[in-house]
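Before our next group meeting I need something from you. Please put the record directly below this note.
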Amino acid sequence: MKKGMVVFCVTFLVTTGAYAAGCPVSHEDVDYQEKVTQLIETASSCENASQIAVSCAWGSNIDLIFVQEAQQKCVSRINAHTSVKALVSSSNQLCEKKFSGISGSLANSSRAFCFLDVSRFFDKLLSPAEL
């Protein structure tokens, strides 16, 4: 229990700073969720969609929607390479393990962003080399 609380506190301190900066939609906007979701859906790449999701995160369950939309931009390249699916799966299991025993909306958000980080990593790894 004590270890879980320490992990939760560290996660909270690390993630809340990341969530604070630069969302192109005002947090006070009545249509916040819809506007952020639309920005993510129309993003040009996995990386751009992920950056919007991260910058617009609240550290709550709304982030699950943003992450799910961003991951849609990442999975097409990953799904085209069946050889990495096992690596993606085992990496996602590490996310599950990292946040097991911790509950609540912040933990759910952090777990979702861990999954998104996995997707971003493999999308970037599989992308053509930039010249």
